[in-house]
Amino acid sequence: MVNIEGKKKNRIPFSQRLFWSIFFIFLGFTVCFLLFQYQREREFAQEKLNNVLSNYNYQLFRRSQQTDDLNQAVKQFISDIPQKELRVTIIDPSGKVLFDNSGIDEFNNHNDRSEVRKARLYNEGFAIRSSASTGERYFYSANNIGGYIFRSALLYDPYVRGILAVNKDFIYFMALMTLIFFFVLSRFTFNIGRTISKLRDFALNIENGQIPEIDYTFPNDELGDISQNIVTLYHRQQKAKNELSMEREKLIKHFQYSKEGFAMFTAEGKELLSNILFIQFSNVISDTQLHQAEDLLDIPEMESIRTFLKKNINMPNRKKKVLRQSVTVDKNGKIFLIECILFLDNSYELAINDISRQEEESRMKRQLTQNVAHELKTPVSSIQGYLETIMTNPELTPEKLRFFLERCYSQSTRLTGLLRDISVLNRLDEATEMFDLSEVNITKLVGEIQKECSKEMEERKITTEVLLPGNPVIYGNYSLLYSIFRNLFDNAIAYAGEGIKIAVNCYHEDPKFYYFSFADNGAGIAEEHINRIFERFYRVDKGRSRKVGGTGLGLSIVKNGVNFHKGQISVKSSPGKGVTFFFTLKKKM
Ligand code: ADP
Protein backbone atom coordinates (compact mmCIF):
# COMPACT_ATOMS: atom_id res chain seq x y z
CA MET A 1 0.00 0.00 0.00
CA VAL A 2 2.80 2.39 1.01
CA ASN A 3 4.62 1.44 -2.16
CA ILE A 4 1.60 2.16 -4.32
CA GLU A 5 1.12 5.49 -2.56
CA GLY A 6 4.78 6.31 -3.18
CA LYS A 7 4.46 5.40 -6.83
CA LYS A 8 1.36 7.52 -7.07
CA LYS A 9 3.21 10.50 -5.63
CA ASN A 10 6.16 10.24 -8.03
CA ARG A 11 4.24 9.72 -11.21
CA ILE A 12 3.69 12.44 -13.80
CA PRO A 13 0.07 13.56 -14.08
CA PHE A 14 -1.81 12.37 -17.14
CA SER A 15 -2.39 15.88 -18.48
CA GLN A 16 1.34 16.65 -18.36
CA ARG A 17 2.18 13.39 -20.08
CA LEU A 18 -0.38 14.17 -22.75
CA PHE A 19 1.03 17.68 -23.13
CA TRP A 20 4.65 16.61 -23.43
CA SER A 21 3.95 13.72 -25.81
CA ILE A 22 1.98 15.91 -28.20
CA PHE A 23 4.48 18.70 -27.84
CA PHE A 24 7.49 16.47 -28.58
CA ILE A 25 5.79 14.96 -31.61
CA PHE A 26 5.09 18.46 -32.85
CA LEU A 27 8.67 19.51 -32.12
CA GLY A 28 10.03 16.48 -34.01
CA PHE A 29 7.98 17.38 -37.06
CA THR A 30 9.05 21.00 -36.81
CA VAL A 31 12.77 20.12 -36.62
CA CYS A 32 12.47 17.77 -39.64
CA PHE A 33 10.66 20.47 -41.55
CA LEU A 34 13.30 23.03 -40.62
CA LEU A 35 16.16 20.78 -41.75
CA PHE A 36 14.42 20.05 -45.01
CA GLN A 37 13.63 23.69 -45.62
CA TYR A 38 17.16 24.77 -44.67
CA GLN A 39 18.61 22.34 -47.16
CA ARG A 40 16.27 23.57 -49.87
CA GLU A 41 17.10 27.22 -49.19
CA ARG A 42 20.82 26.43 -49.34
CA GLU A 43 20.48 24.57 -52.60
CA PHE A 44 18.37 27.39 -53.96
CA ALA A 45 21.07 29.98 -53.11
CA GLN A 46 23.82 27.82 -54.59
CA GLU A 47 21.84 27.29 -57.77
CA LYS A 48 21.27 30.98 -58.03
CA LEU A 49 25.03 31.70 -57.87
CA ASN A 50 25.71 28.76 -60.17
CA ASN A 51 23.34 30.24 -62.75
CA VAL A 52 25.21 33.58 -62.66
CA LEU A 53 28.61 31.89 -63.07
CA SER A 54 27.26 29.52 -65.72
CA ASN A 55 26.06 32.55 -67.63
CA TYR A 56 29.61 33.98 -67.35
CA ASN A 57 31.03 30.72 -68.75
CA TYR A 58 28.88 30.99 -71.85
CA GLN A 59 29.73 34.64 -72.31
CA LEU A 60 33.42 33.78 -71.93
CA PHE A 61 33.05 31.06 -74.51
CA ARG A 62 31.49 33.50 -76.93
CA ARG A 63 34.24 36.07 -76.37
CA SER A 64 36.96 33.44 -76.69
CA GLN A 65 35.53 32.64 -80.16
CA GLN A 66 35.82 36.24 -81.24
CA THR A 67 39.47 36.86 -80.28
CA ASP A 68 42.85 35.17 -80.23
CA ASP A 69 44.08 36.94 -77.14
CA LEU A 70 42.22 35.01 -74.54
CA ASN A 71 43.99 36.78 -71.70
CA GLN A 72 42.90 40.15 -72.93
CA ALA A 73 39.33 38.91 -73.54
CA VAL A 74 39.04 37.53 -70.01
CA LYS A 75 40.42 40.70 -68.49
CA GLN A 76 37.98 42.72 -70.57
CA PHE A 77 35.11 40.44 -69.43
CA ILE A 78 36.02 40.68 -65.74
CA SER A 79 36.15 44.43 -65.97
CA ASP A 80 32.54 44.34 -67.27
CA ILE A 81 31.18 42.31 -64.40
CA PRO A 82 30.93 43.16 -60.66
CA GLN A 83 33.01 40.17 -59.48
CA LYS A 84 36.54 41.45 -60.08
CA GLU A 85 38.12 38.40 -58.41
CA LEU A 86 36.55 35.92 -60.84
CA ARG A 87 38.83 33.03 -61.56
CA VAL A 88 38.39 31.65 -65.06
CA THR A 89 39.72 28.26 -66.18
CA ILE A 90 39.40 26.57 -69.57
CA ILE A 91 40.08 22.82 -69.69
CA ASP A 92 40.39 20.78 -72.85
CA PRO A 93 38.70 17.40 -73.32
CA SER A 94 41.76 15.60 -71.99
CA GLY A 95 41.68 17.51 -68.69
CA LYS A 96 44.57 19.76 -69.48
CA VAL A 97 44.24 23.35 -68.32
CA LEU A 98 44.42 25.57 -71.38
CA PHE A 99 43.83 28.81 -69.57
CA ASP A 100 43.69 29.99 -65.99
CA ASN A 101 43.91 33.51 -64.67
CA SER A 102 44.87 32.68 -61.08
CA GLY A 103 48.54 33.29 -61.84
CA ILE A 104 49.65 29.67 -61.36
CA ASP A 105 51.63 28.02 -64.14
CA GLU A 106 51.66 24.38 -63.21
CA PHE A 107 48.39 22.42 -63.38
CA ASN A 108 47.75 18.78 -63.13
CA ASN A 109 44.92 17.04 -64.94
CA HIS A 110 41.63 18.69 -64.00
CA ASN A 111 39.24 15.97 -65.10
CA ASP A 112 39.11 14.60 -61.55
CA ARG A 113 37.70 17.85 -60.13
CA SER A 114 34.17 17.17 -58.98
CA GLU A 115 32.55 20.12 -60.86
CA VAL A 116 34.44 19.06 -64.00
CA ARG A 117 33.27 15.50 -63.61
CA LYS A 118 29.68 16.65 -63.25
CA ALA A 119 30.02 18.95 -66.28
CA ARG A 120 31.38 16.07 -68.34
CA LEU A 121 28.39 13.95 -67.32
CA TYR A 122 25.56 16.51 -67.28
CA ASN A 123 27.03 19.44 -69.22
CA GLU A 124 27.13 21.52 -66.06
CA GLY A 125 28.22 21.18 -62.44
CA PHE A 126 29.19 23.17 -59.44
CA ALA A 127 31.14 22.54 -56.24
CA ILE A 128 32.38 24.29 -53.13
CA ARG A 129 35.78 23.02 -52.29
CA SER A 130 39.39 23.94 -51.69
CA SER A 131 41.49 24.32 -54.81
CA ALA A 132 44.25 21.76 -55.18
CA SER A 133 46.12 24.33 -57.22
CA THR A 134 45.83 27.49 -55.09
CA GLY A 135 44.92 25.87 -51.79
CA GLU A 136 42.07 28.38 -51.38
CA ARG A 137 38.36 27.64 -51.04
CA TYR A 138 36.22 28.42 -54.09
CA PHE A 139 32.72 28.20 -55.43
CA TYR A 140 33.24 26.56 -58.84
CA SER A 141 30.76 26.49 -61.70
CA ALA A 142 31.68 24.49 -64.80
CA ASN A 143 30.01 24.10 -68.22
CA ASN A 144 30.83 21.62 -70.90
CA ILE A 145 30.78 23.51 -74.22
CA GLY A 146 31.78 21.34 -77.12
CA GLY A 147 34.08 19.11 -74.99
CA TYR A 148 35.83 22.16 -73.48
CA ILE A 149 35.11 22.97 -69.90
CA PHE A 150 34.60 26.64 -69.12
CA ARG A 151 34.88 27.12 -65.42
CA SER A 152 34.29 30.21 -63.35
CA ALA A 153 35.10 30.32 -59.69
CA LEU A 154 34.67 32.79 -56.90
CA LEU A 155 36.72 32.79 -53.75
CA TYR A 156 34.60 31.48 -50.88
CA ASP A 157 35.00 34.74 -49.03
CA PRO A 158 32.50 36.58 -46.78
CA TYR A 159 30.91 38.13 -49.87
CA VAL A 160 30.13 34.77 -51.47
CA ARG A 161 29.16 33.32 -48.15
CA GLY A 162 26.69 36.21 -47.82
CA ILE A 163 25.18 35.34 -51.17
CA LEU A 164 24.91 31.67 -50.19
CA ALA A 165 23.53 32.43 -46.74
CA VAL A 166 20.14 30.84 -46.05
CA ASN A 167 17.16 33.11 -45.45
CA LYS A 168 16.28 32.45 -41.81
CA ASP A 169 12.81 34.03 -41.76
CA PHE A 170 11.11 30.68 -41.93
CA ILE A 171 12.99 29.57 -38.81
CA TYR A 172 11.66 32.53 -36.86
CA PHE A 173 8.21 31.82 -38.22
CA MET A 174 8.36 28.21 -37.11
CA ALA A 175 9.67 29.24 -33.67
CA LEU A 176 6.70 31.56 -33.30
CA MET A 177 4.30 28.78 -34.38
CA THR A 178 5.89 26.42 -31.85
CA LEU A 179 5.40 28.99 -29.12
CA ILE A 180 1.75 29.51 -30.02
CA PHE A 181 1.24 25.76 -30.20
CA PHE A 182 2.87 25.42 -26.79
CA PHE A 183 0.38 27.81 -25.18
CA VAL A 184 -2.72 26.44 -26.94
CA LEU A 185 -1.74 22.87 -26.12
CA SER A 186 -0.94 23.70 -22.50
CA ARG A 187 -4.34 25.35 -22.07
CA PHE A 188 -6.10 22.42 -23.67
CA THR A 189 -4.29 19.78 -21.62
CA PHE A 190 -4.70 21.89 -18.49
CA ASN A 191 -8.49 21.77 -18.99
CA ILE A 192 -8.44 18.01 -19.54
CA GLY A 193 -6.19 17.64 -16.51
CA ARG A 194 -8.57 19.69 -14.38
CA THR A 195 -11.53 17.50 -15.36
CA ILE A 196 -9.56 14.34 -14.75
CA SER A 197 -8.21 15.47 -11.40
CA LYS A 198 -11.73 16.43 -10.31
CA LEU A 199 -12.92 13.00 -11.28
CA ARG A 200 -9.99 11.49 -9.44
CA ASP A 201 -10.77 13.56 -6.31
CA PHE A 202 -14.32 12.29 -6.50
CA ALA A 203 -13.16 8.66 -6.85
CA LEU A 204 -10.63 9.08 -4.00
CA ASN A 205 -13.31 10.53 -1.73
CA ILE A 206 -15.52 7.55 -2.42
CA GLU A 207 -12.63 5.13 -1.88
CA ASN A 208 -11.93 6.73 1.50
CA GLY A 209 -15.57 6.33 2.41
CA GLN A 210 -16.35 10.04 2.40
CA ILE A 211 -19.56 10.89 0.70
CA PRO A 212 -18.79 13.81 -1.59
CA GLU A 213 -20.96 16.70 -0.56
CA ILE A 214 -19.94 19.35 -3.05
CA ASP A 215 -21.72 19.41 -6.32
CA TYR A 216 -19.11 18.58 -8.95
CA THR A 217 -19.38 20.69 -12.09
CA PHE A 218 -17.37 19.72 -15.13
CA PRO A 219 -16.48 21.65 -18.29
CA ASN A 220 -18.95 21.69 -21.14
CA ASP A 221 -17.28 19.08 -23.36
CA GLU A 222 -17.43 15.34 -23.98
CA LEU A 223 -15.02 14.52 -21.16
CA GLY A 224 -17.07 16.76 -18.87
CA ASP A 225 -20.23 14.94 -19.96
CA ILE A 226 -18.68 11.55 -19.24
CA SER A 227 -17.47 12.74 -15.82
CA GLN A 228 -20.87 14.22 -15.04
CA ASN A 229 -22.46 10.93 -16.05
CA ILE A 230 -20.13 8.99 -13.77
CA VAL A 231 -21.02 11.27 -10.85
CA THR A 232 -24.75 11.01 -11.60
CA LEU A 233 -24.50 7.24 -11.93
CA TYR A 234 -22.66 7.07 -8.64
CA HIS A 235 -25.37 9.11 -6.89
CA ARG A 236 -28.07 6.96 -8.44
CA GLN A 237 -26.27 3.79 -7.42
CA GLN A 238 -25.76 5.19 -3.92
CA LYS A 239 -29.47 5.95 -3.66
CA ALA A 240 -30.38 2.47 -4.82
CA LYS A 241 -27.90 1.02 -2.33
CA ASN A 242 -29.42 3.02 0.51
CA GLU A 243 -32.91 1.99 -0.45
CA LEU A 244 -31.81 -1.60 -0.67
CA SER A 245 -30.17 -1.53 2.74
CA MET A 246 -33.29 0.09 4.18
CA GLU A 247 -35.38 -2.68 2.68
CA ARG A 248 -32.96 -5.24 4.08
CA GLU A 249 -33.15 -3.57 7.47
CA LYS A 250 -36.92 -3.69 7.31
CA LEU A 251 -36.84 -7.32 6.30
CA ILE A 252 -34.53 -8.22 9.17
CA LYS A 253 -36.73 -6.24 11.59
CA HIS A 254 -39.70 -8.07 10.20
CA PHE A 255 -38.01 -11.40 10.87
CA GLN A 256 -37.10 -10.36 14.38
CA TYR A 257 -40.65 -9.34 15.23
CA SER A 258 -42.31 -12.05 13.19
CA LYS A 259 -44.55 -14.53 14.96
CA GLU A 260 -42.71 -17.21 13.10
CA GLY A 261 -39.37 -18.77 14.03
CA PHE A 262 -37.15 -18.20 11.04
CA ALA A 263 -33.59 -19.10 10.03
CA MET A 264 -31.62 -19.04 6.78
CA PHE A 265 -28.75 -21.36 5.92
CA THR A 266 -26.07 -21.60 3.25
CA ALA A 267 -25.86 -24.64 0.97
CA GLU A 268 -23.24 -25.99 3.38
CA GLY A 269 -25.69 -25.73 6.25
CA LYS A 270 -24.11 -22.70 7.95
CA GLU A 271 -26.50 -20.29 9.59
CA LEU A 272 -26.88 -16.93 7.84
CA LEU A 273 -29.64 -15.38 9.90
CA SER A 274 -32.08 -16.45 12.58
CA ASN A 275 -34.59 -14.75 14.83
CA ILE A 276 -35.19 -15.15 18.56
CA LEU A 277 -38.35 -17.17 18.10
CA PHE A 278 -36.48 -19.74 16.04
CA ILE A 279 -34.11 -20.41 18.92
CA GLN A 280 -36.99 -20.47 21.43
CA PHE A 281 -39.09 -22.86 19.36
CA SER A 282 -36.03 -25.01 18.62
CA ASN A 283 -35.37 -25.34 22.35
CA VAL A 284 -38.95 -26.41 23.02
CA ILE A 285 -38.90 -28.89 20.15
CA SER A 286 -35.50 -30.37 21.00
CA ASP A 287 -36.01 -30.36 24.79
CA THR A 288 -32.47 -29.00 25.20
CA GLN A 289 -30.68 -25.73 24.82
CA LEU A 290 -29.38 -25.62 21.28
CA HIS A 291 -26.19 -23.65 20.79
CA GLN A 292 -26.75 -22.78 17.19
CA ALA A 293 -29.64 -22.77 14.78
CA GLU A 294 -28.17 -25.53 12.60
CA ASP A 295 -28.30 -28.00 15.54
CA LEU A 296 -32.07 -28.26 15.12
CA LEU A 297 -31.56 -30.38 12.03
CA ASP A 298 -29.85 -33.07 14.13
CA ILE A 299 -32.88 -33.97 16.26
CA PRO A 300 -34.83 -37.16 15.35
CA GLU A 301 -38.04 -35.27 14.55
CA MET A 302 -36.28 -33.57 11.65
CA GLU A 303 -35.50 -36.85 9.87
CA SER A 304 -37.80 -36.17 6.91
CA ILE A 305 -36.33 -32.68 6.39
CA ARG A 306 -32.80 -34.09 6.57
CA THR A 307 -33.59 -36.67 3.89
CA PHE A 308 -35.30 -34.03 1.79
CA LEU A 309 -32.22 -31.79 1.91
CA LYS A 310 -29.81 -34.66 1.25
CA LYS A 311 -31.84 -35.76 -1.75
CA ASN A 312 -32.28 -32.37 -3.34
CA ILE A 313 -29.15 -30.34 -2.54
CA ASN A 314 -26.82 -30.48 -5.54
CA MET A 315 -29.35 -32.45 -7.56
CA PRO A 316 -28.38 -31.86 -11.22
CA ASN A 317 -30.91 -30.35 -13.68
CA ARG A 318 -33.37 -29.39 -11.01
CA LYS A 319 -36.42 -27.95 -12.73
CA LYS A 320 -38.37 -26.47 -9.85
CA LYS A 321 -36.83 -23.30 -8.51
CA VAL A 322 -38.13 -23.73 -4.99
CA LEU A 323 -38.73 -27.01 -3.20
CA ARG A 324 -40.68 -27.38 0.03
CA GLN A 325 -40.99 -29.97 2.73
CA SER A 326 -42.80 -29.65 6.00
CA VAL A 327 -43.20 -31.63 9.18
CA THR A 328 -45.52 -31.25 12.17
CA VAL A 329 -44.04 -31.80 15.60
CA ASP A 330 -46.22 -32.29 18.70
CA LYS A 331 -44.02 -31.49 21.66
CA ASN A 332 -44.55 -30.26 25.22
CA GLY A 333 -48.26 -29.60 24.68
CA LYS A 334 -47.63 -27.53 21.62
CA ILE A 335 -47.91 -28.25 17.94
CA PHE A 336 -45.26 -26.87 15.60
CA LEU A 337 -45.25 -26.78 11.85
CA ILE A 338 -41.67 -26.79 10.55
CA GLU A 339 -41.29 -25.88 6.92
CA CYS A 340 -38.11 -26.12 4.87
CA ILE A 341 -37.74 -24.16 1.63
CA LEU A 342 -34.83 -25.07 -0.63
CA PHE A 343 -33.77 -22.45 -3.18
CA LEU A 344 -32.08 -22.96 -6.53
CA ASP A 345 -28.68 -21.89 -5.19
CA ASN A 346 -29.04 -24.66 -2.58
CA SER A 347 -29.39 -22.24 0.30
CA TYR A 348 -32.43 -23.01 2.39
CA GLU A 349 -34.61 -21.61 5.12
CA LEU A 350 -36.44 -23.16 8.02
CA ALA A 351 -39.63 -21.63 9.37
CA ILE A 352 -41.26 -22.80 12.59
CA ASN A 353 -44.86 -21.90 13.36
CA ASP A 354 -46.62 -22.55 16.63
CA ILE A 355 -49.92 -23.84 15.28
CA SER A 356 -51.27 -24.94 18.69
CA ARG A 357 -53.61 -21.96 18.80
CA GLN A 358 -54.69 -22.44 15.24
CA GLU A 359 -55.34 -26.08 16.00
CA GLU A 360 -57.25 -25.11 19.12
CA GLU A 361 -59.22 -22.54 17.19
CA SER A 362 -60.14 -24.94 14.45
CA ARG A 363 -61.10 -27.50 17.10
CA MET A 364 -63.32 -24.90 18.74
CA LYS A 365 -64.79 -23.93 15.41
CA ARG A 366 -65.63 -27.57 14.70
CA GLN A 367 -67.20 -27.86 18.11
CA LEU A 368 -69.14 -24.65 17.61
CA THR A 369 -70.56 -25.84 14.32
CA GLN A 370 -71.60 -29.06 16.01
CA ASN A 371 -73.18 -27.07 18.84
CA VAL A 372 -75.05 -24.79 16.45
CA ALA A 373 -76.37 -27.79 14.55
CA HIS A 374 -77.37 -29.44 17.78
CA GLU A 375 -79.06 -26.32 19.15
CA LEU A 376 -80.99 -25.82 15.94
CA LYS A 377 -81.99 -29.43 15.74
CA THR A 378 -83.89 -29.38 19.03
CA PRO A 379 -86.49 -26.68 18.25
CA VAL A 380 -86.78 -27.72 14.61
CA SER A 381 -87.47 -31.36 15.48
CA SER A 382 -90.00 -30.42 18.17
CA ILE A 383 -91.81 -28.11 15.71
CA GLN A 384 -91.79 -30.98 13.23
CA GLY A 385 -93.14 -33.36 15.91
CA TYR A 386 -96.00 -31.05 16.87
CA LEU A 387 -96.92 -30.44 13.23
CA GLU A 388 -96.87 -34.19 12.52
CA THR A 389 -99.18 -34.80 15.46
CA ILE A 390 -101.58 -32.16 14.13
CA MET A 391 -101.47 -33.61 10.62
CA THR A 392 -101.87 -37.24 11.59
CA ASN A 393 -104.69 -36.54 14.05
CA PRO A 394 -107.37 -34.58 12.19
CA GLU A 395 -109.88 -35.26 14.95
CA LEU A 396 -107.87 -33.21 17.52
CA THR A 397 -110.03 -31.01 19.74
CA PRO A 398 -109.62 -27.25 19.21
CA GLU A 399 -108.05 -26.97 22.68
CA LYS A 400 -105.45 -29.65 21.88
CA LEU A 401 -104.79 -28.07 18.49
CA ARG A 402 -104.25 -24.71 20.11
CA PHE A 403 -101.94 -26.32 22.64
CA PHE A 404 -99.75 -27.83 19.92
CA LEU A 405 -99.75 -24.63 17.87
CA GLU A 406 -98.69 -22.62 20.91
CA ARG A 407 -95.81 -25.07 21.44
CA CYS A 408 -94.82 -24.66 17.79
CA TYR A 409 -94.94 -20.91 18.17
CA SER A 410 -92.82 -20.93 21.31
CA GLN A 411 -90.21 -23.23 19.66
CA SER A 412 -90.04 -20.98 16.60
CA THR A 413 -89.58 -17.96 18.89
CA ARG A 414 -86.70 -19.83 20.49
CA LEU A 415 -85.31 -20.58 17.07
CA THR A 416 -85.54 -16.91 16.09
CA GLY A 417 -83.78 -15.91 19.32
CA LEU A 418 -81.06 -18.46 18.68
CA LEU A 419 -80.51 -17.31 15.12
CA ARG A 420 -80.44 -13.67 16.28
CA ASP A 421 -77.80 -14.45 18.91
CA ILE A 422 -75.69 -16.45 16.44
CA SER A 423 -75.87 -13.63 13.93
CA VAL A 424 -74.85 -11.04 16.57
CA LEU A 425 -71.86 -13.16 17.57
CA ASN A 426 -70.91 -13.73 13.94
CA ARG A 427 -70.95 -10.02 13.28
CA LEU A 428 -68.84 -9.45 16.40
CA ASP A 429 -66.34 -12.01 15.11
CA GLU A 430 -66.13 -11.06 11.49
CA ALA A 431 -67.71 -7.69 10.71
CA THR A 432 -67.42 -5.27 13.61
CA GLU A 433 -67.62 -2.38 11.13
CA MET A 434 -71.31 -3.22 10.65
CA PHE A 435 -72.13 -1.85 14.11
CA ASP A 436 -72.72 1.86 13.81
CA LEU A 437 -71.88 4.19 16.66
CA SER A 438 -73.88 6.86 18.47
CA GLU A 439 -74.13 8.43 21.92
CA VAL A 440 -75.90 6.06 24.26
CA ASN A 441 -77.20 7.22 27.60
CA ILE A 442 -76.70 4.27 29.95
CA THR A 443 -79.13 5.57 32.61
CA LYS A 444 -81.88 5.76 30.01
CA LEU A 445 -80.98 2.37 28.56
CA VAL A 446 -81.03 0.62 31.95
CA GLY A 447 -84.32 2.37 32.76
CA GLU A 448 -85.91 0.98 29.59
CA ILE A 449 -84.74 -2.56 30.33
CA GLN A 450 -86.09 -2.24 33.86
CA LYS A 451 -89.43 -1.23 32.42
CA GLU A 452 -89.44 -4.12 29.93
CA CYS A 453 -88.62 -6.65 32.62
CA SER A 454 -90.80 -5.11 35.33
CA LYS A 455 -93.59 -7.70 34.97
CA GLU A 456 -91.26 -10.68 35.37
CA MET A 457 -89.38 -9.01 38.20
CA GLU A 458 -92.60 -8.28 39.98
CA GLU A 459 -93.67 -11.90 39.63
CA ARG A 460 -90.39 -13.07 41.10
CA LYS A 461 -90.28 -10.32 43.71
CA ILE A 462 -87.02 -8.95 42.44
CA THR A 463 -85.95 -5.47 43.47
CA THR A 464 -83.40 -3.31 41.69
CA GLU A 465 -80.93 -0.69 42.78
CA VAL A 466 -79.41 1.39 40.03
CA LEU A 467 -76.57 3.72 40.93
CA LEU A 468 -75.22 5.54 37.89
CA PRO A 469 -73.62 8.74 39.15
CA GLY A 470 -72.58 11.29 36.55
CA ASN A 471 -75.15 9.99 34.10
CA PRO A 472 -72.70 7.91 31.97
CA VAL A 473 -72.93 8.39 28.22
CA ILE A 474 -71.04 6.07 25.91
CA TYR A 475 -70.28 6.68 22.27
CA GLY A 476 -70.87 3.12 21.11
CA ASN A 477 -73.35 0.73 19.52
CA TYR A 478 -76.82 0.95 21.01
CA SER A 479 -78.00 -2.60 20.32
CA LEU A 480 -74.81 -4.17 21.70
CA LEU A 481 -74.95 -2.05 24.86
CA TYR A 482 -78.60 -2.99 25.17
CA SER A 483 -77.68 -6.70 24.75
CA ILE A 484 -75.02 -6.45 27.51
CA PHE A 485 -77.42 -5.08 30.13
CA ARG A 486 -80.44 -7.04 28.87
CA ASN A 487 -78.66 -10.41 29.02
CA LEU A 488 -77.39 -9.67 32.52
CA PHE A 489 -80.90 -8.70 33.66
CA ASP A 490 -82.43 -11.77 31.95
CA ASN A 491 -79.89 -14.11 33.52
CA ALA A 492 -80.38 -12.68 37.01
CA ILE A 493 -84.16 -12.97 36.63
CA ALA A 494 -83.86 -16.52 35.20
CA TYR A 495 -81.20 -18.09 37.40
CA ALA A 496 -80.69 -16.08 40.60
CA GLY A 497 -83.99 -17.05 42.16
CA GLU A 498 -86.93 -15.27 43.75
CA GLY A 499 -86.86 -12.31 46.09
CA ILE A 500 -83.39 -11.26 45.14
CA LYS A 501 -81.93 -7.80 44.52
CA ILE A 502 -80.22 -6.67 41.38
CA ALA A 503 -77.66 -3.86 41.80
CA VAL A 504 -76.36 -1.96 38.79
CA ASN A 505 -73.54 0.37 39.66
CA CYS A 506 -71.12 2.64 37.88
CA TYR A 507 -68.57 2.58 40.67
CA HIS A 508 -65.66 4.38 39.01
CA GLU A 509 -64.79 6.61 36.13
CA ASP A 510 -61.48 7.63 34.60
CA PRO A 511 -60.80 9.85 31.58
CA LYS A 512 -61.29 6.92 29.21
CA PHE A 513 -63.48 4.32 30.88
CA TYR A 514 -66.57 3.75 32.96
CA TYR A 515 -66.34 0.92 35.49
CA PHE A 516 -69.56 -0.99 36.04
CA SER A 517 -70.67 -3.75 38.36
CA PHE A 518 -73.80 -5.87 37.89
CA ALA A 519 -74.63 -7.90 40.93
CA ASP A 520 -77.39 -10.12 42.28
CA ASN A 521 -77.58 -11.82 45.64
CA GLY A 522 -79.13 -15.01 44.31
CA ALA A 523 -78.12 -18.64 43.79
CA GLY A 524 -74.65 -17.92 42.43
CA ILE A 525 -72.52 -20.17 40.22
CA ALA A 526 -70.39 -23.07 41.40
CA GLU A 527 -66.64 -22.69 41.09
CA GLU A 528 -66.17 -25.41 38.48
CA HIS A 529 -68.43 -23.54 36.05
CA ILE A 530 -67.36 -19.99 36.69
CA ASN A 531 -64.48 -20.00 34.21
CA ARG A 532 -66.59 -21.40 31.41
CA ILE A 533 -69.80 -19.39 31.54
CA PHE A 534 -68.57 -17.00 28.80
CA GLU A 535 -68.05 -19.89 26.36
CA ARG A 536 -70.54 -20.25 23.57
CA PHE A 537 -73.38 -22.69 24.36
CA TYR A 538 -72.06 -23.32 27.84
CA ARG A 539 -74.76 -23.73 30.40
CA VAL A 540 -74.56 -24.67 34.05
CA ASP A 541 -77.88 -26.47 33.97
CA LYS A 542 -78.95 -27.36 30.47
CA GLY A 543 -82.50 -28.29 31.30
CA ARG A 544 -83.11 -25.15 33.30
CA SER A 545 -81.58 -22.94 30.64
CA ARG A 546 -83.80 -24.44 27.93
CA LYS A 547 -86.83 -24.08 30.12
CA VAL A 548 -86.27 -20.38 30.58
CA GLY A 549 -85.56 -19.93 26.88
CA GLY A 550 -81.78 -19.57 27.19
CA THR A 551 -79.59 -20.17 24.17
CA GLY A 552 -76.30 -20.55 26.02
CA LEU A 553 -75.00 -17.56 24.03
CA GLY A 554 -76.09 -14.71 26.34
CA LEU A 555 -72.87 -14.28 28.29
CA SER A 556 -70.78 -14.77 25.13
CA ILE A 557 -72.60 -11.84 23.61
CA VAL A 558 -72.03 -9.86 26.85
CA LYS A 559 -68.31 -10.59 26.77
CA ASN A 560 -67.91 -9.83 23.07
CA GLY A 561 -70.05 -6.71 23.41
CA VAL A 562 -67.78 -5.48 26.23
CA ASN A 563 -64.71 -6.29 24.17
CA PHE A 564 -66.19 -4.45 21.21
CA HIS A 565 -66.37 -1.38 23.48
CA LYS A 566 -62.67 -1.91 24.31
CA GLY A 567 -63.53 -3.09 27.81
CA GLN A 568 -62.80 -6.14 30.00
CA ILE A 569 -65.20 -8.34 31.93
CA SER A 570 -64.72 -10.61 34.95
CA VAL A 571 -67.05 -12.48 37.23
CA LYS A 572 -67.09 -13.25 40.93
CA SER A 573 -69.48 -15.67 42.54
CA SER A 574 -69.96 -18.06 45.36
CA PRO A 575 -72.95 -20.36 45.66
CA GLY A 576 -75.73 -18.83 47.70
CA LYS A 577 -74.20 -15.39 47.69
CA GLY A 578 -75.03 -14.37 44.16
CA VAL A 579 -73.05 -13.34 41.11
CA THR A 580 -71.23 -10.08 40.43
CA PHE A 581 -69.98 -9.10 36.99
CA PHE A 582 -67.36 -6.35 36.77
CA PHE A 583 -66.82 -4.72 33.41
CA THR A 584 -65.45 -1.59 31.82
CA LEU A 585 -66.70 0.29 28.78
CA LYS A 586 -64.72 2.88 26.87
CA LYS A 587 -66.35 6.30 26.80
CA LYS A 588 -65.48 7.02 23.19
CA MET A 589 -64.30 4.44 20.73
P1 ADP B 1 -78.20 -18.96 28.81
O1 ADP B 1 -78.72 -18.71 27.48
O2 ADP B 1 -78.27 -20.38 29.20
O3 ADP B 1 -78.69 -18.01 29.83
P2 ADP B 1 -75.74 -17.59 29.26
O4 ADP B 1 -74.50 -17.61 28.52
O5 ADP B 1 -76.43 -16.31 29.40
O6 ADP B 1 -76.65 -18.72 28.66
O7 ADP B 1 -75.40 -18.12 30.70
C1 ADP B 1 -74.67 -19.25 30.91
C2 ADP B 1 -75.02 -19.94 32.17
O8 ADP B 1 -74.54 -19.18 33.30
C3 ADP B 1 -76.45 -20.09 32.37
O9 ADP B 1 -76.94 -21.28 31.81
C4 ADP B 1 -76.61 -20.07 33.87
O10 ADP B 1 -76.58 -21.38 34.38
C5 ADP B 1 -75.42 -19.32 34.38
N1 ADP B 1 -75.79 -17.98 34.90
C6 ADP B 1 -75.74 -16.85 34.19
N2 ADP B 1 -76.10 -15.78 34.95
C7 ADP B 1 -76.38 -16.27 36.17
C8 ADP B 1 -76.80 -15.66 37.39
N3 ADP B 1 -77.01 -14.35 37.51
N4 ADP B 1 -76.97 -16.48 38.47
C9 ADP B 1 -76.76 -17.79 38.35
N5 ADP B 1 -76.36 -18.40 37.23
C10 ADP B 1 -76.17 -17.65 36.15
Description:
It contains 16 helices and 17 strands. A hairpin with a 5-residue loop joins β6 (261-265) and β7 (271-274). It has helices spanning 2-10, 14-66, 70-80, 114-122, 158-164, 169-207, 222-257, 276-286, 303-312, 356-392, 398-430, 442-459, 478-496, 527-530, 542-547, 554-564, and strands spanning 87-91, 97-100, 124-130, 137-145, 148-155, 261-265, 271-274, 323-331, 334-342, 348-354, 438-441, 463-467, 473-476, 501-509, 513-520, 569-574, 578-586. It has four domains: 34-164, Beta-Lactamase; 258-354, Beta-Lactamase (2-Layer Sandwich), CATH 3.30.450.20; 363-428, Signal transduction histidine kinase, dimerisation/phosphotransfer (DHp) domain (Helix Hairpins), CATH 1.10.287.130; 435-586, Histidine kinase-like ATPase, C-terminal domain (Heat Shock Protein 90). It has 589 residues and is an alpha+beta fold. The longest helix is centred in the N-terminal third of the chain and has 53 residues, at 14-66. The chain is rod-shaped, with a radius of gyration of 62 Å. It is 53% helix and 19% strand. The strands form four sheets. Strands 2-1-5-4-3 form a five-stranded antiparallel β-sheet, with helices on both faces. A five-stranded antiparallel β-sheet has the order 7-6-10-9-8. The chain has a five-stranded mixed β-sheet with strand order 12-14-15-17-16. The structure holds adenosine-5'-diphosphate.
